[in-house]
# Entry
Amino acid sequence: MPRTNFHSETDGFAFVNDWAWDATETAILKGLITDALGVIEVILSPLIAVAEGPLLAAELGVPFIGPWLVAKTIEAENQAIVDGIVGAVTQAHYGLCGGMAFASLDYWHKNWVVPRGTGPKDQPQRTSPTGTALRDYIWNRLLQSIKDNVGTFLEWMAVLHFEGGPGETWLLDHTKNEVAKLKARIDNGTPVTVGLVGTTWNPMENHQVLIYGYQNNPNGTVSLFAYDNNFPDVETTYVMDFSGSMLVVNNNTPFGNGSGPMRGLFCTAYSPATPPRTIVLRTGMTVSPAITGIGAPVHLAMTVANIGYHTSPPMALVMAGDAGTAVQEAMPTTLAEGAARTLSGNLTFAGAANHKIGAIVTLRTAANAVVTKFLPAEGNTQTASGSVTIVPERLIDSVLSSTCDVTNVVGAKASYTVRTADMGAGLTFAWKVTGAAILSGAASQQVTVQLPNQEGASVTLSVTVTRPDGGVSSGSVTEQTITSMAAALERVMCEISHVMTKAPFQIDHGDPGPDVVRIVNPADIATLVTAATNLSNAVNAVAKVGVPVILGSTPRVGLTLTPVVLGPIATPVVTPILTPVLTPVQGR
# Structure
């Protein structure tokens, strides 16, 4: 059962299609119809010639009828139908069905809240600015619907009323084609305005509605689901039966007023237009801060106003991000004409990213489905969307005097800095340290601490970085102190690893050809570096029990060089003897 997301009770008007036209409006409509009557001659002339020519020839007993006689017959037939249609259009209590169908579809295309009115009898009148704006808009959309489609209405009516012509069978075949077009558009998610043609002589007694869904029934009929502006807040169903010589339609609401049985349906020519705004952003959604950390509150606020016709439908204000829990009103409530209300609250985000945030309102259908509507700006500066950059935890680095420097040595003075490139300028800093004492820089980007004299002591540094707009991001790092002997070993192993990752140990000319020589496998470097940790731990363990460790000219732990032939030359390959793990302390 293909359906679009149009709902009569949220996207259609609450007031019924019942209007009083004044003499000026009636004259305008008569003029539009009269100007379009020429289409009748175009469509009927060939039909009349085919139908009347042989009949006249038989009556007069002659094999050929002169063109002048056929022309006179065509003229008479055309004039009779024109007179019948013009005579039927009188000043009366007509509707604005085409205008209401077009206007409701205009709001749907914008995805704006519809100024529905407060009930079936609450038609906008020209007695207030908002009433005038909506009444004039619906009127102008009616004129557009007639200008664009009156020719089709008159054509179908003329064929239907031409005695002896194809009449109802012609309308049946053409309606089949139009329903196929309608289905294709609904399959693409777009509701369709349609013209309904009855047996009336008065084109103003035909009808225009909006179809938003269909169903192919097992018995070959097709059900069309419609917003019929004669019956607001109700889903009208037209069951189209094409099995006979004329279209038969069963519908759950009456068709038209004096229109007679429905004999045809066609997709009307329609182009979207911009309707009067109703529920708008008076104060555009604000997002503060612009940059902050994971889990930190992001404050949102907006003010929404009703500048449209009469009280709004019940709606809930919502501000939602692309992740996390939305800030929203608990219950949908109406908003009186001219009134406004504000929504504010905090969002939090669990992941670092640039998160999008939008402001909307939600309405509910009779089936309690949630319908989302956009908020146009009241002026030129408000916006219903925003974003916030959520940055990851702060990274803390040791301040090193050289690449292989070691900072976490017992009793040492160590300096640390925090990375802030993703947080902008004008930052403030707050450092906290446990297990050591801050010597300087507690409120600066770089802090200096006095490490304890105990080997293996844990020192935790944490920092909070705050932006001028309140955005915050924090980070922490924990280190353990090591002896100076272990630190010396780490430096030596670090220096060895750096030497062995450069020429002549590593030679790479940028392509995988024969000129590439790798004496040391880079993966072995990690094993070598890993070994230093176990080595330094062992040294620390020995130091604790007071056993002296002598590092003489003959290394106790070393590297063996094994010659390996690579291409035409023999090159030594460095193979680590140790296989446990060690990491140099840098960039913590």
